[in-house]
Amino acid sequence: xTSTPARRPRPAFLPTAILLIGAVYCLxxxxxxxxxxxKAGSTLFTSFTFAPSGSFFDNMGDLSDYGGGIYWRWMIxxxxxxxxxxxxxxxLSGLSGYTLAKYRFxxxxxxxxxxxxxxLVPGIVLAIPQYLMLAKVGLTNTYWSVLLPSIVxxxxxxxxxxxxAAAVPDTVVEAARVDGASEFRIFRTVALPMMVPGMITxxxxxxxxxxxxxxxxxxxxxxxxxxxxTLGLYTLLNRGATEPALYSLVITGALLSMIPLVAVFxxxxxxxxxxxxxxxxxx
Length: 283
Hints:
Layout: H1 13-36, H2 56-65, H3 70-102, H4 108-120, H5 123-136, H6 143-151, H7 154-167, H8 170-178, H9 183-194, H10 196-211, H11 215-220, H12 229-239, H13 246-282
């Protein structure tokens, strides 16, 4: 008897082509920003779109000098909003998700369903009510007006609840209770180390969302010294209609504002990699 040779799996050309098209679609604007940031204002709209020039450091110097260096004030504000807001959000989400996953109490299902509904509500729907509530207590046009709404994330709590249910065994929690540990100590010393990869995910999701947030600061803030970089670049873009030289500064500022996001992602991705490897070993 002659055995028929096993068929080799055919390469999935269509899914690969779709992924490549999606990658080009996402990366093309980034490539344009990189190329355009090297051009002077006089050549920005007259030269080939993707042809780089040699004016990047000149643009960067002009951006740093503009308004007494207010661009870097916007970057510091954004780092404060995104870093502190994401850290507080990850902590609150971790505690809330662990509570919903490991405790049985009346109304738990209702609370979780309300959180799921909150995930589906667009942020624009909540912006005006948030403004009115903060205006009542005199917190508009302050750093708190951007920080406080960013701390509570229904999506972050949902992710933390799912991750806590899967990553923290009930037997480990019960063993800690038998040893006499308090509930908060169990969360802090037992559950939280197991939930670190999930909390890093929540932190990164919130960091990116807050860093790119435009609508909430646009509604809450009037002092340009408290602006994040998104709102600050928007004001420069509006002034570009009468001062075309500012377009080069806006593009250079947009490129610089992407660097911290890339750096944070590269710094935190190792936590995901470790988690995936540990999951593969357990499997």
